[in-house]
């Protein structure tokens, strides 16, 4: 069996590598030609991903062929699509990358083939829009081919072990699709459960994100209250957590491609169905997470006032720009939001991140400074603030 | 060492019994004389509490003496207070039972004695009001005596195993108090951690409740969304949960002495400190949990419409009246709230609960009916609804 994996990003490439490791032939498709060449040369483009280097070295250019041309996957019978889904300024899902991927896959589709969507999507997407795209482009209908959803559950840095050990779910647009996709996925996924439909599989992944989104908001709220009551939040959180209690860690809000995105799938859908009152906790959580920028700005400015300098001359350095420590991505980065907000307040703000060069930071329209040159240093990952003498 | 335990309720009596089992002499104080007599006769007044019967039989009236007279505890040197703290109609804490207990303990207090508060209270209570009451009544000051807080973490039905195995915390109003109370508690508590202050210990217990409060609200919200999207919530919740995801179960809201009460300690305190915007998620969670009554009323009425009878003649039976299945207590019972709400809508509502007699239910100004006589049966614990033909 030959498998096509569409999208060789932070989620797609580890999956493609794990499928190759299971002994299957893989054609990986990605628009980024430079990345494809790297992979075919056995070079790992995601150095922060533990264990990936070994696999790319072993299979890249051999049983894992990367290409930018869909036609190179024409003799594949199993297709996995794992391209990003972003949300726009109004928090609406932008399906354009998914549409492009599926329309191209649809053109290659033959009777008996199976397609699995891995990208996290609003509930109903696979059985409605994805099915439509594939049927239109292929001239086939579900029944001629199989269609399922298995939401990725990776975490950059741990993706290989996640694919090998972490519980993963899969669900079809019909029973035959679910079973077919499940049977193939079991070759390379360590812990797999079949759920009753693709819609359930979609919902499962989205509510997992909502759980984190809300619990981060709760942690942020409790963190602020603890400060107000002169209580050590971290000591309290550690002492409170046990088998039935899982209070999260506070933060400057939620960043990245997942947590800040998924709740909007439900908020927008309920709005469409005139059930806006069904997303009260999710919207409150959004408010709290968003407001952490204002909160930490004030917190930082309080510290700046302790420096013997005019306030607007105090050099603030935020030591992190990526959305998560150690992951080179700035999608919905809270540190950038914080820096821009402090700038708007007229403060003298700089950023530093060991993953980014001075040039890369300046391309973001931010000022670069090493923390030793600053007066006040804020670490957006630990929330620690330091005054340098 | 002789230990006094003030309050022999669902939390106090199991604790008193476990202290007696550890080989210490215990004087248990409770206003309820009938209950005291039962205990001294070796009869367990809380049958739903696994393992308690054996202990009361063995120690009741022997090394565990129950009394309604504080003076009977005059030669005790260690005092534990574990009486209820309710909230009033405006959700303000009502300290009257605590005040009465501590003023009475204060009158008995001698140099070197140690007092521990077990009741969950707003952060700051032990070091401020409790300390004041004790100092005023005893004429001593902290330093002469020790004062600490160790919030109960029991769950009716599992209290004995909770006391023996579950992580418990303790913190003093000063370092000496914390250490002293910790050293004694280790005799009878299986897993104990000393935290840095009574204020932290108070906060720990309150935020544990806030975690449950918010996560129940989130589960309720996601349950309604799942219904709207024609998705099985329970299948999804089971598939979503893993090591890092703990989506709770939906409900008619939150009842009992703990979960609906503790968030108000923080909401009210922040309001006092003019930080109302620090409790956005907690207040949203309250709204969602409260609104489940309206939601299930509509849900039940939808089912009533399927019965071939005038709507207001359809007999609805709610099969549960206690705040939690198997616990005989109706404090903040959601089933009562639901029954009253349906009544207000003009529906013909009855309740049934195997823990309560017809007379007890009628005392609550509710109508009693066995479920087999009803047209529509709603189980408030499983949320299942059934139409009887």
Task: Describe the structure in brief.
2 copies of one chain form a homodimer. Chain A is an alpha/beta fold.
What is the β-strand count of chain A? 14
Using the CA coordinates, give the radius of gyration of chain A: 23 Å
Sum up the overall morphology of chain A in one term: globular
CATH homology group of the largest domain in chain A: NAD(P)-binding Rossmann-like Domain
Question: What's the number of helices of chain A?
Answer: 13
Nearest-integer average pLDDT of chain A: 97
Oligomer: homodimer
State the end-to-end distance of chain A.
64 Å
- For the biggest β-sheet of chain A, the strand order reads 3-2-1-4-7-8-9-10
Largest interface: A-B, 60 and 60 residues
Low-confidence stretches of chain A: none
SSE arrangement:
The structure is a homodimer of 389-residue chains.
Chain A: E1 2-6, H1 12-21, E2 25-29, H2 33-40, H3 52-59, E3 64-67, E4 78-81, E5 86-87, E6 93-94, H4 96-108, E7 114-117, H5 126-138, E8 146-149, H6 159-165, E9 167-172, H7 175-185, E10 191-194, H8 198-228, H9 233-240, H10 262-272, H11 280-304, E11 315-318, H12 334-344, E12 348-351, H13 358-363, E13 376-378, E14 385-387
Parallel strand pairs in A: 1-2, 1-4, 2-3, 4-7, 7-8, 9-10, 11-12, 11-13
Antiparallel strand pairs in A: 5-6, 8-9, 13-14
Helix pairs in contact in A: 1-3, 4-5, 8-10, 8-11, 11-12
Describe the structure.
The structure is a homodimer of 389-residue chains. Chain A has 389 residues and is of the alpha/beta class. Chain A folds into 3 domains: 2-196, NAD(P)-binding Rossmann-like Domain (Rossmann fold), CATH 3.40.50; 205-287, Orthogonal Bundle (N-(1-d-carboxylethyl)-l-norvaline Dehydrogenase, domain 2), CATH 1.10.1040.10; 293-387, NAD(P)-binding Rossmann-like Domain (Rossmann fold). Chain A contains 13 helices and 14 strands. In chain A, the strands form 3 sheets. The first copy, chain A, has an 8-stranded mixed beta sheet, sandwiched between helices. Chain A has a 4-stranded mixed beta sheet with strand order 12-11-13-14, with helices on one face. The longest helix of chain A is centred in the middle third of the chain and has 31 residues, at 198-228. The first copy, chain A, starts with a strand and ends with a strand. The mean pLDDT of chain A is 97. At the A-B interface, helix 8, helix 9, helix 10 and helix 11 of A face helix 8, helix 9, helix 10 and helix 11 of B.
């Amino acid at each position: 069996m030959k498998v096509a994996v569409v999208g060789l990003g932070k989620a797609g490439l580890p999956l493609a590598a794990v499928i190759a490791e299971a002994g299957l032939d893989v054609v990986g498709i990605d628009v980024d030609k430079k990345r494809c060449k790297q992979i075919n040369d056995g070079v790992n483009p995601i150095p922060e991903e533990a264990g990936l280097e070994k696999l790319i070295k072993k299979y890249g250019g051999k049983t894992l062929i990367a290409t930018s041309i869909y036609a190179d996957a024409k003799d594949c019978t199993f297709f996995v699509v794992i391209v990003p889904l972003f949300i726009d300024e109004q928090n609406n899902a932008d399906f354009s990358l998914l549409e492009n991927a599926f329309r191209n896959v649809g053109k290659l589709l033959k009777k008996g083939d199976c397609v699995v969507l891995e990208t996290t999507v609003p509930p109903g997407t696979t059985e409605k829009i994805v099915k439509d795209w594939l049927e239109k482009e292929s001239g086939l209908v579900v029944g001629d081919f199989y269609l399922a959803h298995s939401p990725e559950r990776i975490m950059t840095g741990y993706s290989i072990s996640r694919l090998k050990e972490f519980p993963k779910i899969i669900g079809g647009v019909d029973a035959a699709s679910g079973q077919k996709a499940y049977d193939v996925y079991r070759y390379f996924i360590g812990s797999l459960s079949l759920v009753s439909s693709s819609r359930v599989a979609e919902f499962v992944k989205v509510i997992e994100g909502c759980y984190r989104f809300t619990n981060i908001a709760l942690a942020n709220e409790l963190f602020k209250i603890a400060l107000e009551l002169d209580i050590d939040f971290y000591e309290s959180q550690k002492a409170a957590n046990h088998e039935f209690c899982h209070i999260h860690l506070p933060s400057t809000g939620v960043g990245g491609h997942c947590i800040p995105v998924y709740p909007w799938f439900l908020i927008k859908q309920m709005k469409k169905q005139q059930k806006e009152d069904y997303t009260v906790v999710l919207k409150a959580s959004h408010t709290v997470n968003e407001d952490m920028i204002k909160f930490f700005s004030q917190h930082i400015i309080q510290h700046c006032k302790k420096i013997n300098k005019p306030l607007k001359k105090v050099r603030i350095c935020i030591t992190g720009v990526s959305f998560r420590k150690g992951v080179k991505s700035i999608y919905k980065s809270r540190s950038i939001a914080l820096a821009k907000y402090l700038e708007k307040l007229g403060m003298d703000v700089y950023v530093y991140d060991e993953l980014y060069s001075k040039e890369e930071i300046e391309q973001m329209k931010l000022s670069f400074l090493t923390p030793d040159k600053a007066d006040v240093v804020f670490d957006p990952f630990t929330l620690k603030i330091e005054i340098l003498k």
